Predict the structure.
Amino acid sequence: MSHRFCRVSASELCALLRPRRWTVVLVTTPCFAPIIWDGTFDSAILDTPFRNTTIGLTVFAIKRYVVFLKVFLETADKCFMVGHKVNYYVFTDQHADVPNVLLQEGWQVVNLEVCNYPCWQGVSMHRMEMISNFSKKCFLHEVDYLVCLDEDMMLSDHLGVEILFSLFGTLHPGFYIADHQTFTYEHCSLSQAHFPRDEGYFYYAGGFFGGSVLQVHRLTKACHQVMMVDHTNHIEAEWHDESHLNKYLLCHKPTKVLSPEYLWDERMLCRPPFLRKLRYVAMPKNHQALWNRGENTFSINSHMQACPVLLTLWLCLSGLQVTQLCTEKDVKAATKLCVTAFLQQGEHLNSFLQGI
Ligand SMILES: CC(=O)N[C@H]1[C@@H](OP(=O)(O)OP(=O)(O)OC[C@H]2O[C@@H](n3ccc(=O)[nH]c3=O)[C@H](O)[C@@H]2O)O[C@H](CO)[C@H](O)[C@@H]1O
Ligand SMILES: [Mn+2]
């Protein structure tokens, strides 16, 4: 009987056994859907089967959000689906202010006239209705896939066909390493977005989802319908369309999941070393300037009383001034991100809390 050992010197053996600084990231969901990170795909191989594919990108620039459009389009032109055919669908009520951005040959911007809603929640939530309506009316005949993005963001690295599949969602950057218990699913049992606490593996971001036109049509139609049921019952899910998107993706598992490379906010979050690329990042946003004076104004005191430690903590971590948290939405976002801060800064926070 022969022993088949390979010859390894003592120093090589030491090197092999020495623990390395590996970072383990999840690359499939429990349903075996791939989770897309840098290094898990090869664009050169993937581009060929998608050669004749047309991709539709939906983006909303309603009211003052039109100010973000120029940078959004300019950066998308450089990074989004390079080498493939893209139709940009810009839903807007501000036609006169849509910038004339020179795009790659064959690409086009299609302006879609839509109405606005008095508050930002209304605009954000009605995106589902508008995407659903236009999917049926034209997208189904014009493109193969739809990518539905927030517009107050910019592309900062390659974002290509590796994301395409029948239905995909993006891990929310605030919760990709968070404990399942902290996910901000809708816990009010009266809402259609209600999510039992012991279900769901991932928390998805409202600002980046997509898939085949048929699947996106189904998703947006279903989300709109349940939001209307909530509306009739005078209920609004805490995270609006994002809450309903999460509920939908619990019941209809995505076939691909995008890592937080595909949605990040450098001002709010510490970038971990394993996040090798940031492909789509938040632009700085001043809510006061975006909204009309008096609209959505909010007194911080009531929330500070409700949750003073969380808010103080978040303010310290983010370096924000109290005066910058001027709207209810800001404070909600602060509280949501505070959970992340707790998880990411664990050690520091313990000592910080002891000092309070
Ligand atoms: C990055 C991300 O995951 N963002 C989600 C998050 O908040 P965000 O704080 O990112 O929401 P937001 O203020 O960016 O609003 C969502 C989007 O609606 C559009 N818009 C909004 C208001 C307006 O007056 N005009 C206008 O055009 C615009 O395209 C914007 O990007 O949670 C929201 C629901 O609470 C949505 O699910 C967002 O997609
Ligand atoms: Mn946004």
Q: What stands out?
A: The domain at 16-281 is CATH 3.90.550.10 (Spore Coat Polysaccharide Biosynthesis Protein SpsA; Chain A).
